[in-house]
Design brief:
There is one protein chain. The protein contains 9 helices and no strands. With 208 residues, it is mainly alpha-helical. It folds into 3 domains: 58 residues, no CATH class; 62 residues, no CATH class; 74 residues, no CATH class. The termini are far apart.
């Protein structure tokens, strides 16, 4: 596995290439020689399961590549200003736009477009912090860690078409606007929102 590791962690690898590497590993494991047909004694999907689940822990190359590309996406999302790479993508690709919402352009490199495709994996576990002071789409951005998908559900169908900033949910005294929150979200979402601690420093920080 030493040979493809650098490529897998550095660039988006085509699915066909990943499947070819999987095929080479599979043939090596079953000691296939040349083009001779042979019977594989166990499905490759089963061998790729963790040992605790009865497999041998083999990793599919496409999954490994997606993991490495998602790590680059995570770096871009965090926006670490100590990272030269982050400064580069912010200047060349983001240009002041939010990483989760920026749209790929025809002039973007295929590496950057591959990184953008991995944003879908971040959304399974990444949740925004209100204290960051970023502009937030309360309906579609993940920001409520106490909900399964991190996004609230509207109290009435179609209400999620309204443009509401999270700063509008906070009163001038620095607490949740209970009436506003209850008017927008369903019961479970309301309970989850009220579990999020806030302070005066967060008060309407996205107002601009």
């Amino acid at each position: 596995m030493a040979s493809p590791s650098y490529a897998l962690m550095s660039i988006p690898t085509p699915k066909a290439t990943c499947e070819k590497i999987d095929s080479i590993v599979r043939d090596f494991w079953w000691r296939r020689v040349g083009q001779n047909r042979m019977l594989y004694l166990k499905a490759w999907d089963d061998l790729c399961k963790p040992k605790a689940l009865g497999g041998l822990g083999f990793q599919r190359m496409k999954i490994i590549n997606d993991i490495f590309m998602t790590k680059w996406a995570w770096k871009a999302l965090l926006g670490d200003q100590q990272s030269m790479w982050v400064k580069l993508v912010q200047s060349k690709y983001l240009r002041g736009h939010d990483f989760l919402h920026v749209q790929p352009r025809n002039t973007d490199s295929w590496i950057w477009r591959g990184i953008l495709k991995c944003r879908k994996f971040l959304k399974h576990g990444a949740c925004r912090s209100l204290g960051q002071g970023v502009v937030l789409d309360i309906w579609h951005d993940p920001w409520i860690s106490f909900l399964k998908n991190f996004c609230p559900k509207p109290r009435v169908e179609g209400m999620d078409n309204q443009v509401v900033r999270w700063g509008d949910l906070i009163t001038s005294s620095g607490g949740w606007d209970v009436e506003m929150v209850r008017s927008l979200f369903d019961f479970e979402s309301v309970k989850a929102v009220f579990r999020i601690p806030i302070n005066r420093e967060m008060e309407r920080r996205d107002a601009n």
